[in-house]
Amino acid sequence: MKFYALISAMLLSGSIAFAQNDPTVMTINGKPVTRSEFEYSYNKNNSNGVIDKKTVKEYVDLFVNYKLKVLAALDAKVDTLSSFKKEFETYRDQQVRPSFITSDDVEKEARKIYKETQERIDGAGGMVKPAHILILLNQKATPAEQNAAKAKADSIYKVLSRGADFAEMAKKYSDDKGTAQKGGELPWITRGQTVKAFEDAAYSMKVGKLHAPVLSEFGYHIIKLNGKQNFFPYDSLKNDIYRFIDARGIREKIIDEKLDSLVKNEQSSSAKETLLEKKAEELSAKDSDLKYLIQEYHDGLLLYEISNRLVWDKAAKDEQGLASYFAKNKKKYKWEQPRFKGIAYHVKNEADIKAVKKSVKGKPFVEWAEILRNTFNKDSVIRIRVEKGIFKQGDHALVDKMVFHKDTTVQAVKDYPFDATFGKVLKKGPEDYTDVKALVVADYQDQLEKDWVATLRKKYPVFVDEKVLDTVNKH
After folding, report:
1. Where are the domains of the chain?
2. Is the pLDDT of residue 447 over 60?
3. What is the Cα–Cα distance from 322 to 41, expressed in whole angstroms?
């Protein structure tokens, strides 16, 4: 009994010590929020680069509102949606998958790639390092041009055979300008990297020797072999191979193979998902930053979906609500100067000036563009050019001249010599919310969110421990 009591006391003292190290800073609907979680969120959103930095006290309301919305999403069972699960698990797995691969795994793969390449190259004769002087010859060259190129190549070869400096001759005579300034030097090459005639000649040579002019698709090559060896040592290529592994996504392939190996004896189709979930829990228990990062993404997805349902998308589609909000807050959208709500247009035939006005008169403004398109520009002949909108002075030269009677120059539209406007001047402000829809939608969203948060505050109890809050980032 004494033994079990002692163990219990030790466990209890450990849990108390842990709680003291990471005390609860607040409870939301009875669920505790640790100081470390709050600090993670606060510090991430109030780093040095943030313009509108908040104090800890100022951040509390933002954090609480965020958590309340997440609670609302959970109550609405957003986390049970297959679309939510798929997106969250994809992100979580991105954080977890790298833990299944070790440096030994990557090294093993790198050596495998090296060995396969080494065997292929050395089995085909290793590598050669040639230099060449190219006498360019067009494939459609005339017989006379072919003879001239051959004679020039032979002449250079004879001079080289008598001891002339190859690099100097390359700089002077080679038509391969990319290598000429390097004395004709090419990098180490392997079989299959160059045209066959050049390759066969280079691989047949001894180091330091010259080869008589060789004809390829490009012209005549006079070749000198500067080196011949087997494939490079592993250590000299290790960094390049690692970069190749990263660029080709081979790490992901290794991870997939390891995961498949771990779950191959399982009969469940969800074995891999279960393994990844357990690994996420294991890593999160050791790394609080990872834990909160995954939780942040989880909660962020919930927040987006529930906010879209109840605020963003709802406001954008609620025509009746937008109209009602506008009617109650019309003074808020009053303009400092009159606006012209209508069209500025240009027509080929003068008779169309009246025809345009007649076609849209009495019709809803939002339908004007479609009416004009179907009436005047439906076939291949474009009869009118139209700019539709709500214009203030300075927005449009034709509107300035014909509506606001300003002395301004209107640039003529080619092939459309007749200009006109049609619409109305709004002196006091917009007629309805569609005239300032973007502003009204944004304000209506703000109002919906405020009302929603107020409802959540009443529904879910919130308690903040001010004493613990005062220790944030100070312990």
Report:
1. 126-227, 334-428
2. yes
3. 34
